[in-house]
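Supplementary notes (optional reading)

For those who missed the lab, this is the record we used. Protein: BON domain-containing protein. Length: 257 residues.
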Amino acid sequence: MSFQRAVRPLVAAALITATLAGCAPIILGGAATGALVATDRRSVGAQTEDREIQVKAEANTANTLTADAVHVNVTVFNRRVLLTGEVPDDATKQRAVDIVKQISNVRGIVDELAIAPKSSFGSRSNDAWITSKVKANLINTKEISANVFKVVTERGDVYLMGLVSEEEGRIAANVASRIDGVQKVIKLYEYVKPEEAQRLSTEAQKNPAPAQGDDSNAATVTTTPIGNDTVTAKPLATPAPISDAPIKPGPSTRTGN
């Protein structure tokens, strides 16, 4: 067994622990880097609402679904919810979606829950390792800012979220597709024009503090379409297929908590 394979579960476990503690370092060549400058392009209101949606969704799914057979991860970006993990059957899968649909201010849902046994600790540790490598490689890519991307890995599939230009999104997906162990890259971006992306980054540096938002929309559900892009960036490893999966906005009506 190579040194990297031996140490990977230990590092991944540390990443999981750090994330739960609210402080997740980025691993670069085995060393943790300091905190990055905040350049989140979401509005301060959207950042606050995202945290509220995530807390409610996690609590409601945990309290409603049978824990022994369910592993549901909730990721929220700009009031759009990504559900990943494993559930035992279609009924549980639909129930998880329905729970999120009842939360106020959710704009859209991407249902990526798999009907399968709960993933093992080893699988989740490997996912944490992949996420850390993707983030590290994004940091090392000069053409983009790693801070504007949210990275989620589930069973080797990497989901990328963010308010990005098409070129930024393409570069990040190509970088992620060449990480060892990545099975597929799914782009869940909201695209903005390059000048708008720059404006949002500039505004984010001026206004880093979160604030309450009051915009609201009802949730709609989309699933990831199957499709591959041609990858043409400098290869770091065998590229994984890349799928486009933009989240569609829902109707402008509020649902109850």
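If you only remember one thing from this example: Helices lie at 3-20, 44-64, 90-101, 121-139, 166-177, 194-206.
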